[in-house]
Amino acid sequence: MKLLTMLLLASGLLFAYQKGDRVDPEILKKMELQSGKIYVIDFFASWCSSCKTEMPLLIKAGHAIASDKSELIGVDVDKDHDKGVAFQKELAIDFRVINDNDNSIIQAFDPLGMPSLYVVKDGKVLDLLYGAHDGIDQLIIDEIHELSQ
Prior knowledge:
- This protein has six helices and five strands.
- Strands 3-2-1-4-5 form a five-stranded mixed β-sheet.
- The protein has a single domain, classed as Glutaredoxin (3-Layer(aba) Sandwich).
- Helix 3 runs parallel beside helix 6.
- The chain starts with a helix and ends with a helix.
- The chain is α/β, with parallel strands linked by helices.
- The chain is globular and about 40 Å long.
């Protein structure tokens, strides 16, 4: 059973973007990612309780990193557009959000869990983080500061 679990996890890693991978150019275009800018991309949904808990910290980080060189972007993967927008309003999300109702963006990234956070620059995945983390705001701020040096 352990071997089967390991094989399933490993096969998932074959498809999920990993550190160093290049993001599909069509996805970059759809997300309107510019070259030379560092993007922190957070995948979330209204059904994800960890996402709801983590969002105030992400909003704080988004304010701290927002510049012409870096940006936080949310990707709401709720299939029901109205439910996703209501969730965004409830949490007062004030950074750019892409509503991925057809799940085309999340399918391309294929994260192993939710919430999922990717750092991307010039179409390349520089870092990623799965699941909720205490102090995610400071982790993001520190990472962007380090990458901006």
